[in-house]
Automatic annotation (TrEMBL):
This is Uncharacterized protein. Residues 212-228 have a biased composition (Low complexity). Residues 203-228 are annotated as: Disordered. It comes from Acetobacter cibinongensis. It comes from the Bacteria.
Amino acid sequence: MQSLLSRLASLAAGSVAVCTLSLGGVGLSTQAHAQASVLLKHQSAQAVVETVDHDARELLLREANGHLITIEYGSSIRDLPRVNPGDKLSISFVETLGADIAQPGSPLPESTLTTARGYVHGHPHGVIASFRRERAKVETIDLPTHTISFVTDDDTSHVAVLRTKAMRDFLSTLKVGDVIDITRMESISYIIKNDTVTPQNPVAAGVQSDSAAPAAPAAPAAPAAPAQ
């Protein structure tokens, strides 16, 4: 969990990391012959806020089992419900990865960060979601071992072994020289359980959006996942 939070913090600070296509996890769906996505992570936790450091922009949380989690959030993250020491949080982490064949002449994909806030049954609710997008060129394909190598736009080479049916099916549609767009979506949402409010403009069952960055375009076949 902590690594996911750190990556979100890096994006918020304007440092977008290169997304390596290590594909594994739980298969979701395959759309057409040139698109696929998988779910990497979906986990929940209950935690209590230990400390809030506004200068360092860090939260220290303690899970029920005593495990400590540090959340680092960059200056771009704003308009989220404010938490205080002692607050009880219900947290959800989701990470997905998708890939599709880039259309000829299409612009390079852009990474984005979005935030939202609102209320869930009267409890303040915040969401931070990052969409990290890369364009890559296929260099080699080995179908028997489900292995692909590719080069991203920064001239970095990657090798990935695909472990899900959706991604293996996608691999079978590719050929050397194809250009693909890769999208990794990572999100954190939290509900402040001990705080109940009555919004003046009730949105009590949903989330009202407060974008911290341009709205994220729809990710390929469900936002965007690792081969090991």
